[in-house]
């Protein structure tokens, strides 16, 4: 089974999610771009980021692939929810576009397939952010280039604790059903050991965000441990 060279380059590698939340001190494109470059120097094989300004700034600072998305809203389908959002990410410089691949209602009333097909015709590489094994099966059938467990926990990464870990049961089910396909482990990977466990469970690559690029959360973990 052959894959696009960019997808092949991610096999067995670390992808770092570089994002800041609204109202936070680091939420500026130039800061996100600097952090992305630092992650690249540390060994990140790709950078995942959100928002058109951040995508453009990061693309200008790193040489590794940029996985771009556009979060619009806070509930339901808000990760690159429409074709318009996806095309804007491409225009901003994203090498791969991440899309919510659940079957939940979208703002424009279209389906996942309606959003994906034009992108495939335009040669855009896509990443499916999934919640369940059914989402993963649908994403594989539709032909997404990457399929990820991003949404399996159903809450934002900022709400995670060190006690939460990646959804290895879902990952193992997906990789056993679809051996050789680029199934990505994303969500609540907090330690190098958890990242290694994901690779051992069959993950094509592992996405780590909060544990590397969200100092507020990392600080709170240490503070909570000392207060216990």
List its salient traits.
alpha/beta, 228 residues, eight-stranded parallel β-barrel
Short recap of the structure:
40% of the residues lie in helices and 15% in strands. By secondary structure, the chain is α/β, with parallel strands linked by helices.
Kindly describe this structure.
The chain is an alpha/beta fold and 228 residues long. It is 40% helix and 15% strand. The chain has ten helices and eight strands. Strands 1-2-3-4-5-6-7-8 form an eight-stranded parallel β-barrel, surrounded by seven helices. The longest helix is centred in the N-terminal third of the chain and has 14 residues, at 29-42. The mean pLDDT is 95.
The succession of helices and strands, N to C, reads: HEHEHEHEHEHEHEHEHH
Distance between the termini: 50 Å
What is the averaged pLDDT score? Answer: 95
Q: Roughly what percent helix? A: 40-55%
Assembly state of the chains shown: single chain
Question: Which helices and strands, and how do they pair?
Answer:
Blueprint: H1 5-8, E1 13-17, H2 29-42, E2 46-50, H3 52-59, E3 66-69, H4 83-92, E4 96-100, H5 112-121, E5 125-129, H6 133-142, E6 146-148, H7 168-177, E7 183-186, H8 192-200, E8 205-208, H9 210-213, H10 215-227
Parallel strand pairs: 1-2, 1-8, 2-3, 3-4, 4-5, 5-6, 6-7, 7-8
Helix pairs in contact: 2-3
């Amino acid at each position: 089974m052959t894959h696009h060279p960019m997808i092949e380059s991610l096999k067995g590698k670390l992808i770092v999610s570089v994002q800041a939340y609204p109202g936070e001190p680091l939420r500026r494109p130039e800061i996100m771009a600097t952090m992305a470059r630092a992650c690249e120097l540390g060994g990140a094989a790709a950078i995942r980021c959100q928002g058109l300004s951040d995508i453009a700034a990061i693309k200008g600072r790193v040489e590794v692939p940029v996985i771009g998305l556009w979060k619009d809203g806070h509930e339901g389908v808000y990760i690159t929810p429409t074709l318009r959002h996806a095309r804007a990410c491409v225009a901003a410089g994203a090498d791969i576009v991440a899309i919510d691949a659940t079957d939940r209602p979208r703002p424009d009333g279209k389906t996942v397939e309606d959003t994906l097909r034009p992108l495939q015709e335009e040669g855009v590489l896509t990443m499916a952010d999934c919640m369940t094994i059914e989402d993963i099966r649908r994403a594989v059938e539709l032909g997404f280039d990457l399929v990820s467990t991003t949404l399996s926990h159903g809450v934002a990464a900022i709400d995670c604790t060190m006690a939460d870990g990646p959804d290895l049961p879902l990952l193992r089910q997906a990789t056993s059903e679809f051996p050789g396909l680029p199934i990505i482990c994303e969500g609540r990977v907090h330690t190098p050991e958890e990242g290694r466990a994901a690779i051992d469970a069959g993950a094509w690559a592992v996405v780590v965000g909060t544990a590397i690029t969200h100092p507020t959360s990392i600080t709170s973990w240490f503070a909570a441990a000392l207060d216990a």
